[in-house]
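sorry for the late reply, my laptop died twice this morning and i had to redo everyting from scratch. anyway the thing you sent over, i finally got around to it. pasting the sequence first so we're on the same page, its 205 residues, then the predicted structure underneath. double check i copied it right bc i was rushing
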Amino acid sequence: MPILCLLAALMFQQHMEHKFDPLESAKSFDDPARDAWQKPSEVIAALNLKPGQSVADIGAGTGYFTVRLAKSPAAPRVYASDLEPGMVDYLRKRAAHEKLANITAVQASASSPNLPEPVDVILIVNTWHHIADRETYFKTLAKSLKPGGRLAIIDYVKGAPMGPPEHFRFAPAQIRADLKKSGYKPAAELTFLPNQQFQIFTLAK
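ok and here's the structure:
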């Protein structure tokens, strides 16, 4: 393997294996200043959730979107899935502390969010670059969508003042191409987020 490719592979592996401390992460993930550019209320409104529906927040972290989804007018069942055991424990305790019985914290694996049942909407925020074998991952994930279900991807664009290194950011067209391989088709592209792309997909079949 050429040395540059080897170095790139090693950098990717180190980034994928980066561990997050829940308490430290909460300082940045749940910083109130984030609301100005993350626009969580607008994001949730765009998902157009209905009472009785369910949502999976994959890569939920400390629950920035999880808690807001659970408190939204539709009050959906929210499965907060994360790879880090510390985050899952944090989410479980946060849901209990805030008395949000409609939140279920789920321990994910590298290959699956391990959702206990199919959901109406899957939301993946700032997590795309952490998924290694995306084609296989999203083919498997399709089984966790109810008929007519939607997959929402929000991720940093190149040039945004925050987020991962530039080589871990993907153009919207690249994400569409990758998801097409896994059996998804574009349903909507929203442009109100200043630092992130926001794309919604459905299953092609």
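DSSP finds eight helices and seven strands in the chain.
thats about all i looked at so far, will dig more tmrw
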